[in-house]
Amino acid sequence: MKLTDISTIKKLFEKNGFTFSKSLGQNFLINPSVCPNIAERGGAKEGVCALEIGTGVGVLTRELAARCERVTAVEIDERLKPILDETLADFDNVDVIFADVMKTDLAEIIAEKFGGRETIICANLPYYITSPVIMKVLESRLPISSMTVMVQKEAAERICAKTGTRECGAITYAVNYYSEPKTLFRVNRGSFMPSPNVDSTVIRLDIKKARPLSEREENILFSIIRAGFSQRRKQLVNPLSASLHATKAEIASLLENAQLSPTARAEELSLEDYIRLAKFIVESL
C-alpha cells in the first residue's frame, strides 16, 4: 500500500468518510522519501522501541514498525481508526492509543509498552502544538534517548539557534538545557496534502543524561529565562526585578556576582550564563 500516493490516500478517505480537520492542523505527507529518512536518522533500528506522536494515515508508523522492535503511537483523531486498522494491518508490533498527547502519561506508556528497552520518539507535529509537545516530553524526563520531530522551518531555526544570539528565544535555552538539538533536513511545503503555507524542517533532540541544577535551581532558571525574553529588548535588570520582586540595584549586584554585565539583555547570555545566574539567585534567597 503506497500511502504517499495521492489517489491511494483519497480512496482511503472516501471509503471511510474522512475529511481533513483544520482545527487539528492535519497535513499528511505525500513525499515518499521523508518518512524513511525520519525513521533512519531518528534512530529506528532493531532492538529499539519507538513512541510516535500523531500517526496521520500511518506513513511514518509503517517505517518505524519495519525497523523497530515495537511501536506505540498516540493519535488524537479517533476518525483515523478504521484507516489505521487497514494501513497498519501488515504489522503485529504496532498499537495505537487514541488520546490527546498533552493529557497522556507518556512515562506510563513507555514503561508498560517497552519495558525498559531503548526508546526513541518520532513525530510529525501540527505547527500549533509544536512547542507544548516538545516541552512536555523534555520536562517529563522520559526514559528516551532522542526525539526526532518535524516542525515549521522557523520553529526549527529558533530551537536549533545558538544561545546568546539574536536568533534564539526562550525555547532555545529550554531545549538546550535538556538536550542537544540539531537540524537534520528540510521538507518543502509541497510534500504535504493539503499543502501548508510554510516549509518544514526535521530536527533531532538527543537527550542529555545529566543536568547541572537541582529542581529548585531549574525552576529559577526557567523563570528568569521566561522573564528575560518577555522583554528581550530591555536590559535584564528590568524584567528580572519584576519577576524576582527585587530592586534593580539588587538584580545588578546579582548579575555582577555571576560575572555578567548589568546592562546585558536576555538574548546576549549563553545557557551557561543563565545556569550560573540561577545558582547565584538560589544562594541569595
What order do the helices and strands come in, and which of them pair?
Blueprint: H1 6-16, E1 28-29, H2 34-41, E2 49-53, H3 59-67, E3 70-75, H4 81-87, E4 94-98, H5 106-114, E5 119-124, H6 130-139, E6 146-152, H7 153-159, H8 170-178, E7 179-187, E8 192-193, E9 200-207, H9 215-230, H10 237-243, H11 248-257, H12 271-284
Helix pairs in contact: 2-3, 6-8, 9-10, 9-12, 10-11
In short:
This protein is an alpha/beta fold and 285 residues long.
Description:
This protein has 285 residues and is α/β, with parallel strands linked by helices. It has 2 domains: 6-207, Rossmann fold (3-Layer(aba) Sandwich), CATH 3.40.50.150; 215-284, Helicase, Ruva Protein, domain 3 (Orthogonal Bundle), CATH 1.10.8. The chain is 41% helix and 18% strand. It has 12 helices and 9 strands. The chain has a 7-stranded mixed β-sheet, with helices on both faces. The protein has a two-stranded antiparallel sheet with strand order 1-8. α9 (215-230) packs across α10 and α10 (237-243) crosses α11 (248-257). The relative contact order is 0.11.
The CATH topology of the largest domain comes to Rossmann fold
Q: Give the low-pLDDT segments.
A: none
Q: Report the mean per-residue pLDDT as an integer.
A: 94
CATH architecture of the largest domain: 3-Layer(aba) Sandwich
Alpha-carbon distance between the two ends: 62 Å
CATH class of the largest domain: Alpha Beta
How would you name the CATH homologous superfamily of the largest domain?
Vaccinia Virus protein VP39
Binned, the helix content reads 40-55%
